[in-house]
């Protein structure tokens, strides 16, 4: 990805980070911790790739790649949590319970 693409991705990630952080603080809902952490990691990845592309961790793994890899499981939790919330909202029930 070129520099312009990385700058655009960073802007999008930061916008989402600010929006989810604001919603989480406003609604005082722990659900927003997962998207905030996801977009924090993705913002850090884009920033690291722009500012310090040669930085490495664990020997030879680029820092931006490590941050991006860390974002995957957090994003999976965020998506799963969102699906559970939607399920509860639209069915009026909780998964695993009758009726």
Task: Write a structural description.
The chain is mainly alpha-helical and 99 residues long. It has one domain. It is built from three helices and two strands; from the N terminus they run H-H-E-E-H. A two-stranded antiparallel ribbon has the order 1-2. A hairpin with a 3-residue loop joins strand 1 and strand 2. Helix 1 runs antiparallel to helix 2 and helix 2 packs antiparallel against helix 3. The protein is elongated. The N and C termini lie far apart (49 Å). 21% of the residues are buried. The model has no long low-confidence stretch (mean pLDDT 91). Keywords: Membrane, Transmembrane, Transmembrane helix.
What structural keywords apply?
99 residues, mainly alpha, two-stranded antiparallel ribbon, 3 helices, 74% helix, elongated, membrane
């Amino acid at each position: 990805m070129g520099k312009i693409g990385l700058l655009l991705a960073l802007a999008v990630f930061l916008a989402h980070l600010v929006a989810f952080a604001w919603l989480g603080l406003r609604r005082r809902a722990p659900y927003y911790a997962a998207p905030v952490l996801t977009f924090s990691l993705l913002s850090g990845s884009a920033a690291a790739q722009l500012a310090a592309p040669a930085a490495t961790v664990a020997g030879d793994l680029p820092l931006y790649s490590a941050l991006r890899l860390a974002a995957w499981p957090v994003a999976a939790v965020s998506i799963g949590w969102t699906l559970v919330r939607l399920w509860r909202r639209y069915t009026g029930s909780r998964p695993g319970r009758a009726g």
